[in-house]
Amino acid sequence: MENCFACAQLCSGAGRKAALALCLAFCMLGLGLSVNAEQGEAGIITFDVGGAGTGAYQGTSPYGVNPAGAITGEFFDASGVAPGYLRAPDGSITPFDAPAAGSVADSFHGTYPTSINPSGWISGFIVDDGGVYHGFVRAPDGKLTPFDCPAKYQGTQSGQGTVPMSNNLAGAITGYCIDTNGAFHGFLWTPSIRR
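Now predict its structure.
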């Protein structure tokens, strides 16, 4: 539930009613899953990242799982900053911060993994100290590579930038860029253009 507020903040910062509606739909899905968890439905395993806060809008939020059972997402610590994490199939958890991730308390700055493919590549975005979004890809060995959409399609003000949403087995990443006018532009980032 804590992520519903963060998602609404992200969507409203982008000024997009459709994106906000999508965020709310995901939140409602999350509420449905919470009800099942409270009923003690078989097969549910809960987990928290060490260092995750326990207050309102804090805690552990997963966003992607691959066929092997590796999970990625972010956790909000007690200061309100969001590092990312990787939870291995054996349950071990590795927190991480992408380069230039913001660290201003109570600002929703930080590292936001959004997807993990079958090979263990993680894609996502950071929110820097200025509130601008930047993409990243994390290799299975932990190497993080930042990337941004071309300047023509990426604004440099708070609520603008590059937001990767998904990656596939071939290593392609897709998402959207938010320009200086607040308009969204889709992108495809392929392994051949990796730095």
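The longest strand covers residues 59-65.
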